[in-house]
From TrEMBL:
GO molecular function, one term: RNA polymerase II transcription regulatory region sequence-specific DNA binding
Major localization class: nucleus
Name of the featured protein: MADS-box transcription factor 50
Domain K-box: 86-176
Length: 214
């Protein structure tokens, strides 16, 4: 008869546990070596004893195998993350597509299309939303008109001030021109005075020297 199946559990006896560790560690080391030779596999084995002693086997060098493991693990993690991101993007796109379809259907109903399939409650809801939308639109329209009216009033005030400034400038220039004209008139005599002077000068030089007028 063969041996019975060994129950896998902690060996309570410390001596027996050490013996079992030594035998199974040697068997595990042998199996790892056989796997690497028979299958041309890169195998690395690390074992710590209960006392903390290190046992290892690596047919391609422990550091090389660990480096290869880290690189492969990083690639796998990156690939998994990319796959998860793609799946999330697809799910988000599908959800957005459904929302857009629902919004388009609601838009058509608000515009008065495809109302045959609507219930009384849905029609009432559409009517309420339409009235609210109209109220918002009218409120915004009134606000825009008030803003435009205020701007027009400001422009009127600016134009009135500019008109007054132009008028004052015109009055100032007109007064200056009148003053300059008056000054010119005071400096040069008129034609009648000029003829009188010429007449006096003519009378003074009439006749020969020493003779008297008849």
């Amino acid at each position: 008869m063969g041996r019975g199946k060994t129950q896998v559990k902690l060996i309570e006896d410390r001596t027996s546990r050490r013996v079992a560790f030594s035998k199974r560690r040697s068997g595990l080391h042998r199996k790892a070596f056989q796997l690497s030779v028979l299958c041309d596999a890169e195998v690395a084995l690390i074992v710590f004893s209960p006392g903390g002693r290190l046992y290892e086997f690596a047919n391609a060098g422990m550091q090389n195998t660990i480096g290869r493991y880290n690189e492969t693990n990083t690639k796998d993690s990156t690939s998994n993350q990319v796959h998860q991101d793609i799946e999330k993007i697809k799910a988000d796109a599908e959800a957005l597509s459904k929302k857009l379809d629902a919004l388009e259907a609601c838009k058509r109903k608000i515009l008065g299309s495809n109302l045959e399939e609507c219930s009384i409650e849905e029609l009432q809801s559409i009517e309420d939303r339409t009235e609210k939308s109209l109220l918002s639109i009218r409120t915004m329209k009134a606000r825009r008109l008030e803003e435009q009216l205020a701007k027009l009033r400001q422009n009127v005030v600016k134009l009135s001030h500019h008109k007054q400034e132009l008028y004052f400038q015109y009055q100032k220039e007109h007064h200056l021109a009148m003053a300059a004209a008056a000054s010119a008139m005071a400096t040069f005599p008129d034609d009648d005075d000029h003829h009188d002077v010429m007449d006096v000068e003519t009378e003074l030089f009439l006749g020969l020297p020493g003779s008297s007028r008849s």
